[in-house]
Amino acid sequence: MNKHMKGALVYLPAGVKLYQLSEGDAVTRYKVVPKPSHVLLVGEHHCEQYYSVLYEGENWRVPYNDVYPLKGERP
Question: 41 with 55: CB under 8 angstroms?
């Protein structure tokens, strides 16, 4: 599992799915990243396998394994 710090700028490859979840963890919205993107990591969720990222002005959850450090940076 990748481990990144809150506030880090991270890389998402094209095709990654982003999720917004309800209080009961049901998916309420999802979006597929159309092209490689850099996003701000704003947190991680306890007991879940998701990071919270800021993408196009909204908070989204993305699976840990789909988040990568920027080239030349350590996770």
Answer: no
